[in-house]
Amino acid sequence: MKSIRAKLNSSMLIMLVSTLGFGFFAYKKNNSLERIRLAVSGSLSLREKVQDLDIERHDSDSVLELKKVKATLKEDDRRTSISNLIQAYNSNNPKLFAKRVKEFEKLERKYFKISQWRIQKIKKTVHFYLLIAILTPLLGLCGLLYYFNHGVLTPLQHLSHRMMEFLIDQYTFRFSTPPNNEIGNLERTFNSLAQKVLNNMDELHALDRAKSEFVSIASHELRTPLTSIKGSLGLLSNDIVGTLDVESKEMVLVAEQETDRLVRLINDMLDLAKIESRSLTLKKDWLILNELLKKTALGLKGFATAADVNIVVQCHDDSCEVEIDSDRIQQVLTNLISNAIKYSPDKGIVRIVSVLNQQGLVEICVTDQGPGISADNQNLIFEKFRQATDSSNHLVKGTGLGLAISKALIAEHNGDIGVRSKDGEGSTFFFTLPQWRQHDKLNPAQDIKAA
Ligand SMILES: Nc1ncnc2c1ncn2[C@@H]1O[C@H](COP(=O)(O)OP(=O)(O)OP(=O)(O)O)[C@@H](O)[C@H]1O
Ligand SMILES: [Mg+2]
After folding, report:
1. 385, 401 in Cβ contact below 8 A?
2. Same CATH fold, 285-450 and 182-276?
3. In this structure, are residues 311 and 352 in contact, taking their beta carbons and an 8 Å threshold?
4. Is 339's C-beta closer than 6 angstroms to any atom of ligand 1?
5. pLDDT tens digits, the chain, 451 residues: what are they?
6. Which of 46, 138, 164, 422 has a Cα at 20 to 30 A from 396?
7. CATH number for the domain formed by residue range(s) 182-276
8. Does ligand 1 lie within 6 Å of residue 403's CB atom?
9. What class has domain 285-450?
């Protein structure tokens, strides 16, 4: 099969050659048409001259003129007819002259008729050539447009749809028999790219599994000695193994705080590893939302008081129940609320509000009056170990895992998580919970589904 470029080039060449060729033929035929027309008008004037001849008054100038015309004629019979006519004229025989004039008239009329017929015929040929010279590029252009549409644009559109499908369909699509042209080359390149992506994905999955395994094993191994370190530090700080001086106690307290931080980090990493290896199982149950919000806020009251921040809880409906893994959603809420407290100014207020959003889902919002998050950072902070704000002057230093874990846990509950914020204007972190009901009654959306 020819390439698209070769097809385009050859059809353009055919169009050009046929336009020029037929245009040239038309030009040539038109020239011969002009010649016949001239000859016809010459024949008419010749007939007029012969009619003007008067045998009574012999005119040698006219005879000379007739001879000149005769010399220009190509047809033998016409030349002979004029010679006979001149002879009869010169012989002064009126009868013979009249006979020759008749013969001449007859022949010229015949010649005129044939010429008219030839003119019509050549005219038709000229028109035909001109029509082809004009139609060829027009039809060729239409053909090219049709081919461009079906042979180039449609396959390109097909290719872009297939590429989208490849992305959506978990990278499985391949072109089976690409055509032998530029589009086919594109499809072949796409196939190679797809193969490369698949190979890399397999490698990445293997690496990811190895990483998750390593993190789980390492975390377990680290947690055991940390528990005994924490226990020993507790014994020391509580003066059970002897009284410590103030300076030593302070150092033991720092060691205890850092141990707590390490335990938190290890627990977070274990959680992430479980979620990523899809080995996290949720224990879902129906719970009253208001109670869950209040309980979580109460758990963080000490932290809020130390930071001089007030927490306000507002639930849209006291009877609203949500189907969740309460430990995991509490983990999400704790992270969002502790973040809000961390970044609140002194005497700031953190609001925990639940609403029923436009899609009919329960939405929980945690709003603070902190520094806010720039648009650029709003997506980044949901990735692992990403931190946008310097929290060094706050109560707790984070690791940048809280939001990544929250995002994964909310996804496990089929909800969405996000942030609405502007630099310097506080932030509102929100997440949705699709499964909810009032008391023991299914919510209207679920009623419809059940029906
Ligand atoms: N309410 C907030 N106001 C301003 N920035 C915030 C807020 N919440 C989160 N961030 C930004 O998002 C980053 C990521 O938050 P995330 O909860 O994932 O990590 P962390 O709080 O730093 O550590 P961790 O939660 O793992 O202890 C934070 O470091 C901070 O830069
Ligand atoms: Mg956090």
Report:
1. yes
2. no
3. yes
4. yes
5. 568 888 888 889 999 999 999 999 999 999 999 999 998 998 999 899 898 888 888 888 888 988 998 898 888 999 999 999 999 998 888 899 999 999 999 999 999 999 999 999 999 999 999 999 999 889 989 998 998 898 889 988 988 888 888 777 666 666 677 778 888 888 888 888 888 888 888 898 888 888 878 887 888 888 888 989 999 999 998 888 888 888 998 999 999 988 988 888 888 888 888 887 777 888 999 999 999 999 999 999 999 999 999 999 999 999 999 999 999 999 999 999 999 999 999 999 999 999 999 999 999 999 999 999 998 889 889 988 877 665 554 555 677 889 999 999 999 999 999 999 988 889 999 999 999 998 765 455 444 333 3
6. 422
7. 1.10.287.130
8. yes
9. alpha beta
Beta bridge partners of 311: 350
For 54, the token pair is: 């008067």
CA-404 nearest atom, ligand 1: 18
The reply to whether ligand 1 has any atom less than 6 angstroms from the CB of 398 is yes
- How far separated are the first and last CA of the chain, in Å rounded? 58
Q: Assess whether the C-beta atom of 194 lies below 6 angstroms from ligand 1.
A: no
Q: Report the nearest-CA residue for atom 19 of ligand 1.
A: 400
- The atom of ligand 1 lying closest to the CA of 366 is 1
Instruction: Please give the distance, rounded to the nearest whole angstrom, from the Cα atom of residue 172 to the centre of ligand 2.
Output: 37
Q: Is there an atom of ligand 1 within 6 Å of 348 CB? A: no
Give 429 Cα–ligand 1 centroid separation in angstroms: 11
Ligand 1 within 6 A of 400 CB? Answer: yes
381 CB within 6 A, ligand 1: yes
Q: How far apart are CA 437 and CA 362, in angstroms?
A: 10
Going from the Cα of 403 to the center of ligand 1, the distance in angstroms, rounded, reads 7
The DSSP secondary structure of 10-78, one letter per residue, reads: HHHHHHHHHHHHHHHHHHHHHHHHHHHHHHHHHHHHHHHHHHH--TTS--HHHHHHHHHHHHH---HHH
350 Cβ inside 6 Å of ligand 1: no
Cβ distance 264 to 405 under 8 Å? no
Q: What are phi and psi of 242, to 5 degrees?
A: 130, 155
DSSP element (H, E) containing 366: strand 362-367
| DSSP codes, 107-142 | HHHHHHHHHHHHHHHHHHHHHHHHHHHHHHHHHHHH
What is the C-alpha separation between 225 and 263, in angstroms, rounded?
A: 11
Would you say 367 and 348 are in contact if contact means Cβ atoms under 8 Å apart? no
- Locate the domains of the chain by residue range: 4-162, 182-276, 285-450
